[in-house]
Amino acid sequence: MNGIIEKITEFIKELLTGWITSNLDTMFTDVNTKVGTIAAEVGRTPQDWNSGIFSMIKSLSDNVIVPIAGMIITFVLCYELISMIMEKNNMHDTDTFMFFKYIFKMWVAVYLVTHTFDIAMAIFDVANHVVTSAGGIINGNASIDVADALQAILENGVEDMGIGELLGLGVETMIVSLCMKIISVLITVILYGRMIEIYLYVSVSPIPFATFTNREWGSIGNNYVKALMALEFQGFFMMVCVAIYAVLVNSITVADNIHTAIWSVAAYTVILCFSLFKTGSLSRSIFNAH
Fold first, then answer.
1. How confident is the prediction for the chain on average, in pLDDT?
2. Which of 3, 200, 237, 239 could bridge 279 with an S-S bond, Cβ 3.0-4.6 Å?
3. With 0-12 CB in 10 A as exposed, 13-18 as middle and 19+ as buried, what is 164?
């Protein structure tokens, strides 16, 4: 009778141990996958992220927004001409150079609007170089060795625990693993939300670019460029968050206390998610974009 009870107990413990191992394997794998996803996604330019969306946005910009930008250029240049005449004492103090300056402003205004996408993408390429360089440094240190972590947990006495302890640990790992999946979804929302915001900004780029040549209206264009830089460098701040997270997670010693290690990973992942949410406002604050 005792032998049967022991075999049933052993069978239940094997099931619970397998359940715990599976939960932990999924949890650590999710961490590695999400960290790798962040590093890969933030380093993409708008045309690389989704060429179909980029083509659609470019088409909308060229066919819908550029004509509006042309009207704004006309208004801005007329306003500029009137202001220039008024500044020169109603044409009483005229000189030939001011007309050359005005013609040059006209050329610059038209050039900026007709090459808006090239300029916007150049801004992204410059900032993307910073993100890519950071990714090369971070990627090699941003993962947990799943096999070693599981081995450390098993060596920590999981197989020697009673059924009650294993059941409690199984529920604990299941809850943490579920939380990690939810956080993974939130991180994906942050990444995709940033790229959609970039596409929205780029879609109307001819309008703010049309205001550059006027002193008073130029603040619109200046703030727009600041916002583009803030969006791109948000990717860099995301990479820094990943780097900090990787150092924190890899410093966890699983063998010391299995419960502390599991909840530490969960806590650090929550902190990562919160930090990624804050990168947008931080980047805008640094670049004074509003």
1. 76
2. 237
3. exposed
pLDDT at residue 90 above 60? no
Q: Total structural domains in the chain?
A: 1
DSSP state of 142: S
- CA nearest 180: which of 19, 21, 22, 23? 23
Cα 208 to Cα 76: distance, rounded to the nearest angstrom: 12
Give the mean pLDDT of 251-271.
72
Q: Which domain range does residue 202 map to?
A: 2-286
For residues 275 and 253, give the distance between their C-alpha atoms in angstroms, rounded to a whole number: 23
pLDDT tens-place string over residues 2-52: 567 667 777 777 777 777 777 777 776 766 676 667 767 777 778 878 888
CA 243 to CA 189: how far, in whole Å? Answer: 20
Residue showing tokens 């030939």: 96
Give the DSSP per-residue string, 200-232: HHHHTTHHHHTTTTSTTTHHHHHHHHHHHHHHH
Calculate the alpha carbon distances from 33 to 44, 92, 139 in Å.
17, 71, 12
Who has greater pLDDT, 188 or 7?
Answer: 188
Rounded Cα distance between 190 and 238, Å, is 10
